[in-house]
């Protein structure tokens, strides 16, 4: 959809008089309406963290710790680097491909003027809670505000009826929670002090629930979400521990989060009219690849292709984060992890395919194909693997 913030810049730069400017904007709106009518489709709106960020953090005031718009990021697909935390494409990119959509544009990139096919609001480092990496990322609450701004533009450009149809047909993709449990790491007593694990998870799930309800209030009906990955065993976490082992505490709280998420989604399905969701068990999928990489086409499952220190777990990939020296493997597709915290492009394609096509043993109660196509989810065949 054509964004008024982009139109305003264009009109100003052209130096057009007011009457001509109004006509210019009206013409653009008519083009948008014609485009929408000609290309009926299911839009995709993306929210979350670095697993989904297509480069929004390139356009905010932050540090290289929360950016990936430099070599060797993107080396397998994007030249120059797009800002994705990977050697190539991410889960939403492959989901868009499967849905026969173009790459969903980063909302904050001022060059993106069309959001007819959807928008990606995700921000690397973002959490569900505003406090997670506050000041360096676009938190989920702000991402949802951007979505509300875009909804207003849809209504202005398309009219209420067409806008409501677009929003109700659309799929809303989420990857949230991991940073809420990683960002407090370092407290000597507990990563979540002064909260109990249950209290802290309750806050995260509560805010995530509010986000789902907010989208539902604006007409959204179809949610796709991944479980929080096993971040307690990330190379970055293990490299920072004296014995280089997984963090048992993070593992426990992530497990609690994923259990609470499942329960809350089931409640919302009963409470909210028309609410449907696809929940993909990304946590288990990643654990399997870390434990048995050859089964999924990888040579190395627990060490990053790009980084330094034990397991490549020191977050130095690209040499822009305080330490210039880093190691880079010869073939990124051999390593499940591209850097200390993120899977490579091959893994993201695998995850997207299972999220799209998986049966009830993989993604439930629907898969993404069912949400996009309106078809029933196949029951477990025992043949599919996460």
From TrEMBL:
<dbReference type="GO" id="GO:0016298">
    <property type="term" value="F:lipase activity"/>
</dbReference>
<protein>
    <recommendedName>
        <fullName>GDSL esterase/lipase 1-like</fullName>
    </recommendedName>
</protein>
<dbReference type="InterPro" id="IPR044552">
    <property type="entry name" value="GLIP1-5/GLL25"/>
</dbReference>
<keyword id="KW-0732">Signal</keyword>
<dbReference type="InterPro" id="IPR035669">
    <property type="entry name" value="SGNH_plant_lipase-like"/>
</dbReference>
<comment type="similarity">
    <text>Belongs to the 'GDSL' lipolytic enzyme family.</text>
</comment>
<dbReference type="InterPro" id="IPR001087">
    <property type="entry name" value="GDSL"/>
</dbReference>
<dbReference type="Pfam" id="PF00657">
    <property type="entry name" value="Lipase_GDSL"/>
</dbReference>
<dbReference type="InterPro" id="IPR036514">
    <property type="entry name" value="SGNH_hydro_sf"/>
</dbReference>
